[in-house]
Amino acid sequence: MNNSHLELLKQLAEEFQPRTDVNTRATVETESTDAFATLVDLARDMQNRLDQQQNRIRQLEQMVETDELTGLYNRRGFLRRVRETMARAARHSESGILVIADLDGFKLINDHHGHAAGDAILRHFGQNLRTHTRADDFVARFGGDEFAILLVGSIPEAAERRISDLEKATSRFPLIWKGAALPIRASFGFTVYNGKSDITLLLQQADDAMYANKHAKRPHSESSHNAA
């Protein structure tokens, strides 16, 4: 190979080198862009999975805090809301009303009309309580035919009026069962809470007031703390 050939090869190599550098930079930039896009996709996928897991957790929490028959809070869910409300009441010097309600003569409904009618009564009564309380209030079925209501932020002076409204709403809307109107009656008891109240004591006070109201409706010979 003579000198002219060597010079030509050298010249071609020098011309090709810039093109190679450009192609290399383009390849690196493309790979970087692809890697970034992959990371973004992975991050979105992880966020979607996290959102799904959080939704599932909320659904499970709702299931364990909800009464299956009525769709209201169960005792567990209600007490959680009471604790949260009490903590807020302590911070802001608030008060409210805790109510216990118990159906009157519920055993007779089951005996005369069957348990399906009894379940319908419970659902109807629970829905009636929910309809005649505010969105900020909490309504629960504690079990059996006993219900609880937390009237958040209600002033103590309004307690008797609000309980009277609930009693009137209960008697005003009977359950229509197989073409017949089944009247619904309930006894209510309440106590006033504030941020320093003890939850166990509150429940006992409201329960005692409810039974006192229930017994006052009966002839003396029928009065019994455990009667339904």
UniProtKB/TrEMBL annotation:
Keyword list, A-Z: Coiled coil
Coiled coil: 36-70
Entry keyword annotation includes Coiled coil: yes
GO BP terms: cell adhesion involved in single-species biofilm formation; negative regulation of bacterial-type flagellum-dependent cell motility
The keyword Coiled coil appears for this protein: yes
Gene Ontology CC annotations of this record: plasma membrane
Transmembrane intervals: none
GO molecular function: diguanylate cyclase activity
One matching Pfam family: GGDEF
PANTHER family for the chain: DIGUANYLATE CYCLASE DGCM-RELATED, REGULATORY COMPONENTS OF SENSORY TRANSDUCTION SYSTEM
Protein name from the UniProt record: diguanylate cyclase
